[in-house]
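[#protein-structures] MJ: dropping CRISPR-associated protein Cmr2 here for a structure pass
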Amino acid sequence: MNSDGVYDFYLHEKDCDIGEIKRKILDAVSDDHKDDFERFYPSPADLNYLPRNSVLIRLQFTLKKPYTSRGEDAFSTNPIVRDKFTCLPIVRPSTWKGNLRFAATKLKGPKNPIIIRLFGSNPDSEDTVKGRLYFFPTFFKDRAGNDVITPLKRETRTPARGPIPLEVMKPGTKGDFYLLYVPYPGKENFRDEIKEDLKLIAEALKLMFYTYGFSAKRTSGFGVVEKQLKGNLWMRGGVSKNFSDLHKLSEILDGYRYEQH
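AK: finished. structure tokens for CRISPR-associated protein Cmr2:
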């Protein structure tokens, strides 16, 4: 334990509510930096510096079910993950990647070449392949709330143990999701690969956001979003499209016009 940890633990033993004090400080800091997170996101203009057929997708979503994650605050019970710079609750890029990959493998299977092409090779794979998808953090401007869940036994649907308090982002909370697709040069069927990639991306996004969710408690329906959202899609060369749900996004990507090399 570092010196700060020892100090916090000492105050905690003295019945000082150091967890609540820290939370108030973090909330104050997050108010000071609540607009700084925009610098973490790519812009449509950045596409001009990337390979042909690169695509940027932004989804401005609203939570239908609570979202939670596993933070590291020793003085909070089941805390949500926060960004160290802004102190805002976040969804990490690795969380997005893991959940979208999970949804995509439900559609294609874990060993399908398109999964490796989009998400890269597995950590235990001998061949290192970089995926074509790039993920970015989601910052929630709203403050986290509290919720309680009671785990149930699968057989009897009776409580397996007592209620568990969680720090969550409540339903109605809004967030921005950014996804960048950069197709590295492929083989002779490069054009067909891009069409396959974009089709699977659209289907996997629907499955992740509308069915499975993207939360640490996704098996309980946590992290599912409202059907209606505000979406933008930008293609290299200045082409842009707007959409109001992920079914519309599928239609847009189905009609994608391939940029010749």
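MJ: nice. Confidence is low (pLDDT under 50) at residues 1-18.
AK: one more thing. The longest strand covers residues 55-62.
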